[in-house]
Specification:
InterPro entries: Citrate_synth-like_lrg_a-sub, Citrate_synth-like_sm_a-sub, Citrate_synthase, Citrate_synthase_sf. Belongs to the citrate synthase family. This is citrate synthase (unknown stereospecificity). There is one protein chain. With 273 residues, the protein is mainly alpha-helical. The chain folds into 2 domains: 38 residues, no CATH class; 197 residues, Cytochrome P450-Terp, domain 2 (Cytochrome p450-Terp, domain 2, Orthogonal Bundle), CATH 1.10.230. The protein contains 12 helices and 3 strands. The protein has a 3-stranded antiparallel sheet with strand order 1-2-3. The protein is globular and about 75 Å long.
Length: 273
């Protein structure tokens, strides 16, 4: 029978973590002294260390930073950005405006990268089981279109005929694959999906920012769930910028539309009580 643990031991284990060690005068992140990390490790490399437990190579950190930088903002028409700006006009602090915005980054707005990487990963698993790239893509798309009428995650954009961010990210991904930093497998899967969709529909449905960043996060070995978290980190930069900009303006309680544009009322006609 194991010896009963003391109250102190139970307290120390209550929030046990592999991430940080801290006591007066000492801070270690994943075993590294914070003073050694400061000035020597970039922010993307720090994100990698905190999530993965080891430091990335310089090239891996740069590629991660490229993906994060690409998705920081998409304008006030994006719900998260609009919410940050509206919240700022209500007189709340920067943290409240940011939290309000981040809280809407879910399955519909912000989750497509995670969904795209799950889709890529399923195809990669089929290939590991012996299927060719073309067969794996075709079978997964057959299944997808049979089960849903929605869009394939990571492809198509409601504003851009071609999302200007995606081709550049794929170009960089291919460059890093040629240099041996990554193997290029997820880039090949994504491009094969795009080609198969085009053959089915008779027109190209180009990859978007979610599909392209999912390629990079997959190439770097991040699981799908973390892809959404990385998008939240990325978009938080734009959210902060817009919340700060709006907070410097005199607007108060600014709604989603100018006051002369009111909503369409679709309820009961006027009636007496």
């Amino acid at each position: 029978m194991s010896e009963r643990k003391t109250g102190r031991e139970r307290g120390e284990e209550w929030w046990s973590t592999d991430i940080i060690e801290m006591h007066p005068g000492t801070i270690r992140l994943r075993g590294y002294e914070i003073q050694d990390l400061i000035g020597n490790v970039s922010f993307p490399a720090m994100i990698w260390l905190m999530l993965r437990g080891e430091l990335p190579t310089e090239e891996q950190a740069v590629l991660l930073g490229i993906a994060l930088a690409a998705a920081v903002d998409h304008g006030p028409q994006a719900p998260s950005i609009a919410i940050a700006r509206i919240a700022a006009t209500c007189g709340v602090g920067i943290n409240s405006a940011m939290a309000s915005a981040v809280n809407v980054l879910g399955d519909v707005h912000g989750g497509a990268g995670e969904q795209a990487l799950e889709f890529y990963g399923a195809i990669a698993a089929d290939m590991d089981g012996g299927a060719s790239l073309e067969d794996a893509v075709r079978d997964r798309l057959d299944r997808f279109f049979a089960e849903t009428k929605g869009y394939v995650p990571g492809f198509g954009h409601r504003f851009h005929p071609v999302d200007p961010r995606a081709p550049r990210l794929l170009e960089i991904t291919r460059q890093y694959a040629r240099e041996g930093v990554i193997n290029g497998r997820f880039a090949g899967i994504a491009e094969a999906i795009e080609a198969d969709i085009a053959a089915r529909k008779g027109k190209t449905i180009p990859m978007n920012i979610d599909g392209a960043t999912a390629v990079i996060y997959g190439e770097l070995g991040f699981p799908p769930t973390l892809t959404r978290g990385l998008f939240v980190l990325s978009r938080s930069v734009g959210i902060l910028a817009h919340a700060w900009e709006q907070s410097q303006k005199p607007d108060r309680n600014k709604g989603p539309l100018p006051r002369e544009w009111l909503w369409a009322y679709t309820g009961a006609p006027p009636r007496k009580l």
